[in-house]
Amino acid sequence: MTTLKSKLQEDLTEAIRARDELRSSTLRLTLAAITKEEVSGKTARELSDDEVQKVIAKEAKKRREAADAFAQGGRAEQAEREKAEGVILDAYLPQQLTDDELHQIVAQAVEEARAGGAEGPRAMGAVMKIVNPKVAGRAEGGRVATAVKQLLAG
Fold first, then answer.
1. Tell me: the pLDDT tens digits for 69-101?
2. Do residues 40 and 33 touch, judged by C-beta distance below 8 A?
3. Hey, CA dihedral for 132, 134, 140, 145, is it positive or negative?
4. What secondary structure letter does DSSP report for 33?
5. Cβ(43)–Cβ(52) under 8 Å?
6. Is the CB of residue 93 less than 8 Å from the CB of residue 80?
7. Helical spans, DSSP H, in the chain
8. Which one of 15-19, 95-99, 139-143 scores highest in mean pLDDT?
9. Residues contacting 59, CB < 8 A, separation 6+
10. Which residues, 6 or more positions from 105, have their beta carbon under 8 angstroms from its beta carbon?
11. How does pLDDT run across 102-125, given as a tens digit for each residue?
C-alpha cells in the first residue's frame, strides 16, 4: 500500500474514533474514489503516491465546484460543508503556488518558448509544455492557462 493511501486510512480510523463525522465521511469518499480508480480498467492495480495525489486533487476540485454551485443556489449551509471538506482534502496536497510564484514560472517559460521561435497566441501549447511539469500538482490547469494567456497577450 502506498504511503499516502495508508496515511488516509490511518486518519480515517482516527476520525472515526474521535467521532468526527465530517472528516470521516470526507476520507471515506476519497478512499472510495481511490479504490474505484485502482479497479478501473482491465486489471486491478495499486496506485502510486502521485496517482493517489491526483485523485485527491480531483476530489478537492469537485468540492470547490460544488461549494460554488450551492452558494449560487442559495444553500449556504451545504456550501459551507463542501468548503470544509475541501479544506480537509487540501491538507493532503502539496502547497499551492501563489499568484506571484506562478507568474514567475510562466514568465520564464514564455521567454524559453520565444527563444525557441514560438510567438504570439499560437505559442500557448509550447509554453504549457514547459510550465506543466514545473507546476504539476501545485496549481490548477485553469489558473495556469489564464496566466499563460495574459503573458502571451500582453
1. 999 999 999 999 999 999 998 888 888 777 788
2. no
3. negative
4. H
5. no
6. no
7. 3-17, 21-39, 49-72, 76-90, 99-115, 124-135, 141-153
8. 15-19
9. 29, 30, 33, 89
10. 97, 131, 134, 135
11. 788 888 887 877 777 767 667 777
**Integer Cα distance of 114 and 111 in angstroms:** 5
CA atoms within 13 A on the CB side of 103: 5
CB 83 within 8 A of CB 33: no
Cα–Cα distance for residue pair 130/111, rounded to 1 Å: 11
Cα separation, 68 vs 80, in Å, equals: 10
- 53, 137 in Cβ contact below 8 A? yes
Q: Which amino acid is present at 7?
A: K
Tell me the C-alpha distance between 154 and 137, whole Å: 27
Q: Which residue has the cell 479497479?
A: 39
Return the number of other C-beta atoms located less than 10 Å from residue 32's C-beta.
Answer: 11
Tell me the three state secondary structure of residue 26. helix
Structure-block grid coordinates of residue 73: 443556489
Phi-psi region of 119 (alpha: psi -120 to 50; beta: other; left: phi over 0): beta
